[in-house]
Design a protein that fits this description.
Helix 5 crosses helix 7. This protein is α/β, with parallel strands linked by helices and 344 residues long. The strands form two sheets. Strands 8-7-6-9-10-11-12 form a seven-stranded parallel β-sheet, sandwiched between helices. It folds into two domains: 144 residues, NAD(P)-binding Rossmann-like Domain (Rossmann fold); 183 residues, 3-Layer(aba) Sandwich (Rossmann fold). The protein contains 13 helices and twelve strands. The two termini are 19 Å apart. Bound molecules: 2-keto-D-gluconic acid. 2-keto-D-gluconic acid binds next to loops.
Length: 344
């Protein structure tokens, strides 16, 4: 195929040398090298988190950018850089991209689905188990030298095996978590999703599609795996937490903002649910102070996809997308393929 986006405004096109790209955060040196074989690359080996103004400035003259969830790409950024043709997110979630703004300007956006599904599901399951079995809380107790004797009710939690696993957002990662629960731990799986899974996907998991109220009411362990959007903002707030069992746990490996962190901190403080496990936060890397004060929450710094192999696969897939979009070929995982080949 010819240059996948040859009809776009020129930015280092034929006759002007190789396209210029920005790698907005530090990534594997091998991936930087790979991109250097195709492009004039500005990378960020110090891993500076650019301010908005700096991001806009560094994008000047760039035809493409490899971004992470830290970089917001919206109308202001795109209008300041009309030569930008493709933004390749090294993440499956793309709530940092304003897709309508990209569409309106013919900018291709890509993400990294699939390569992180199983790794993220492993971590979601581990967090859920840590909350249910009070692993982090009891480790802090031991490390702080408070363990002087055994007692029958010391750090008793709730069982995972045989319990009801509730999943809000039954996409690829939700299904991978459901598989772990149903096939590995004999859990009963219920889920709520905009659309019901095909029967051939539900059947092997024994998964039952329920309304949100039933999900909240019946889950022993509720795991959130839905994309963030205006519609999913505070999908779990005080009203939803009040519908959960007092023995239930809540795990979020999706995005900050899906849970109302202030309401959750209060529910945990008042033991209205038993425990929570969070890998993502509203306004991260800041964490709501109320969450830092309560013992019954496991807190991790947005690392659900963080294995060496998976992060490498994510970076390579983002690079595949950039290379295909700016040289020749079909980007493997476009978010808005409708802009491909469209003049702008
Ligand atoms: C990333 C993620 O680590 O893929 C996602 O959506 O949340 C994580 O895997 C993070 O967004 C950095 O880009």
């Amino acid at each position: 195929m010819a240059d996948a986006m040859s009809s776009r405004a020129s930015a280092g096109g034929p006759g002007e040398g190789r396209p210029r790209v920005l790698i907005a955060r530090a990534v594997f040196p091998q991936v930087v090298q790979r991109l250097r074989a195709h492009f004039e690359v500005e990378d960020n080996p110090d891993d500076t988190v650019y301010t908005r103004a700096e991001l806009i400035e560094r994008l000047r003259g760039k035809a493409g950018a490899l971004t992470t969830g830290s970089e917001r790409i919206d109308a202001e950024v795109l209008d300041a850089n009309p030569q930008l043709r493709v933004v390749a997110n090294m993440a499956v979630g793309y709530n940092n991209f304003d897709i309508p703004a990209c569409n309106a300007r013919g900018v291709l956006a890509t993400n990294t689905p699939d390569v992180l599904t199983e790794t993220t599901a492993d971590f979601g399951f581990a967090l859920m188990m840590a909350a249910a079995r009070r692993i982090a809380e009891s480790e802090h107790f031991l490390r702080s030298g408070q363990w002087s004797r055994w007692s029958y009710d010391m750090y008793t939690g709730s069982d995972v095996h045989g319990a009801t696993l509730g999943i809000l957002g039954m996409g690829r990662i939700g299904q991978a978590i459901a598989r772990r629960g149903a096939l590995g731990f004999g859990m009963r799986v219920i889920y709520h999703n905009r659309s019901r899974l095909a029967p051939e996907l539900e059947a092997p998991l024994g998964a039952r599609h329920v309304d949100k109220a039933t999900l909240l009411r019946e889950s022993d362990h509720l795991v959130l795996v839905l994309p963030y959007s205006a519609q999913s903002h505070h999908a779990i707030g005080a009203a939803e937490l009040a519908q959960m069992k007092p023995t239930a746990t809540l795990t979020n490996v999706a995005r900050g903002g899906i849970v109302d962190d202030a309401a959750l901190a209060q529910a945990l403080r008042e033991r209205r649910i038993a425990a929570a496990a969070l890998d993502v936060f509203e306004g991260e890397p800041s964490v709501h102070p109320g969450l830092l004060e309560v013992p019954n929450v496991v807190l991790t710094p947005h690392i659900a996809s963080a294995t060496v192999a998976t992060r490498r696969a994510m970076a390579e897939l983002a690079a595949d997308n950039l290379i295909a979009a700016l040289t020749a070929g079909a980007p493997p995982t476009p978010i808005n393929p409708e802009v491909l080949g469209r003049p702008r």
